[in-house]
Amino acid sequence: MEFSLSRTEVSRFEYRSEATSTNDVLKEQATADAAAWPDLSVIVTDNQTQGRGRLGRVWSAPTGKALAISVLVRPKVPPHAFGWFPLLAGAAMTRAVKKVVEANMKPVEGVKEAEDPRHDTTLKWPNDVLIDGYKVCGILCELLPDGTGIIIGAGLNLSLDEHDLPTLTSTSLLLVTRTAPDPDQVLAAYLHELVTLYRAFASANGDAVQSDLHAAVSELCGTLGSVVRVELPGGTDLIGTATGIDAGGRLTVVNQADGEERSVAAGDVTHLRY
């Protein structure tokens, strides 16, 4: 694949026909030769053999039907701002997917355009992208061993059909739009949004409010206003209503049990449907 559009968005771009884990490969390359892998270097494949998600979960997809994307950033921001990068990447992917879905929707035969349902693309805090509540992309951010950079990994379902989906709560761009997506178009849209948000965030020295990243994430985040269950580190659950995202990127949840507001820095979130 040439990825001619995507290459213009970043400083270095490398497509691999196969990779174990693009995050691992980029981490190894960037650690071994930092000068050769500057800020906004990218490795991408459509055949990842040892992909993983958060908490070491396996992430896999049939060859040629999904993209594994890893972007290296070397941000000149305070370390306390690093927690915003999963949200930054999630917002970028949400914007990109929303644009691609709107541009590529194929009309349903026999259904008038006004009756054809529009799709709702949202960010689920902190790092999943959903279409109509179904997961189309997940984000995994990891620090370089020396702390000089962050690898932003994303796994995006392009053309999986019903039989390929890893879970009942997953979807793909093909299933939503009824059109085979152009991988370069989708990836270029994501990289463009990512670079735009990243540069504004870096220019504001990692201030999410000043850079408007906080506002962008809050606008896109479908978790806000939802009743959620948060599986916290340590195995306990928090059930309540998600009310906002604080200046540090933490999710604020009003505990259903006692009405107290809690700030959540890490945890698996499930949107509950009552």
Quick structural summary:
The protein has 274 residues and is of the alpha+beta class. The chain has six helices and twelve strands. Helix 3 (85-104) runs antiparallel to helix 5.
Alpha plus pi helix count = 6
* Uncertain parts: none
Strand content: 25-35%
The average pLDDT score comes to 92
User: Using only CA atoms, what is the Rg?
Assistant: 18 Å
β-strand number: 12
Helix-strand string: HEHEEHEEEEHHHEEEEE
Largest sheet: 7 strands, mixed
Tell me, what's the shape? Answer: globular
Description:
- The protein is an alpha+beta fold and 274 residues long.
- It has six helices and twelve strands.
- It has helices at residues 4-7, 22-32, 85-104, 173-177, 183-203, 213-220; strands spanning 12-16, 41-45, 66-73, 121-124, 128-131, 134-143, 150-157, 227-231, 237-245, 251-255, 261-264, 268-271.
- The strands form two sheets. The protein has a seven-stranded mixed beta sheet, sandwiched between helices. It has a five-stranded antiparallel beta sheet with strand order 11-10-9-8-12, with no helix packed on it.
- A hairpin with a 5-residue loop joins β9 and β10.
- α3 runs antiparallel to α5.
- The longest helix has 21 residues, at 183-203.
- The radius of gyration is 18 Å and the shape is globular.
SSE layout:
Blueprint (H helix, E strand, L loop, with lengths): L3 H4 L4 E5 L5 H11 L8 E5 L20 E8 L11 H20 L16 E4 L3 E4 L2 E10 L6 E8 L15 H5 L5 H21 L9 H8 L6 E5 L5 E9 L5 E5 L5 E4 L3 E4 L3
Parallel strand pairs: 1-2
Antiparallel strand pairs: 2-3, 3-7, 4-5, 5-6, 6-7, 8-9, 8-12, 9-10, 10-11
Helix pairs in contact: 3-5, 3-6
